[in-house]
Amino acid sequence: MRKTIQILGLSAVLMAGVITPVEAASAFCPTNYVCMWEDAGYRGTRYVAVPGVKGFHDIDGWDGDNEISSVINRSQCTARLHSDDDYSWPYWWVYKNQSVPDLKSLKTMDGDIANDDVESFQLLYC
Ligand SMILES: [Ca+2]
Ligand SMILES: [Ca+2]
Ligand SMILES: [Ca+2]
Predict the structure, then answer these.
(1) Residue 114 CA: which ligand is closest?
(2) 94 is a domain residue
(3) What is the Å distance from ligand 1's center to 28 Cα?
(4) Tell me, what CATH number does 49's domain have?
(5) 50-64 as b/e: b if 16+ CB within 10 A
């Protein structure tokens, strides 16, 4: 908790009890953006921060591919996270205004786990 507060630089606000840590993390994902982090809990490098506009997005091969571990979708789009660069199966859904603090919890019906596997994504239905 202390580490999170220091990273976010919002200790005064948090101590005042105005917003929760999760809300503080989302402050670093602008409204109407989709953001993805290297580590669970919206920590580590934020590899992805893109406006919520319908379309295809590649995640950088060096900075992000097979490393994403948490996602905040503050857009009005549904995000479909793909396990490869070619937007193919398997993939996972993160709905609008949904946050996933640990992609280990995001699985396909076949049991494929999203953590450290996502390489591209689409924004749909917006
Ligand atoms: Ca990629
Ligand atoms: Ca990771
Ligand atoms: Ca992959």
Answers:
(1) 3
(2) yes
(3) 22
(4) 2.60.20.10
(5) bebeeeebebeeeeb
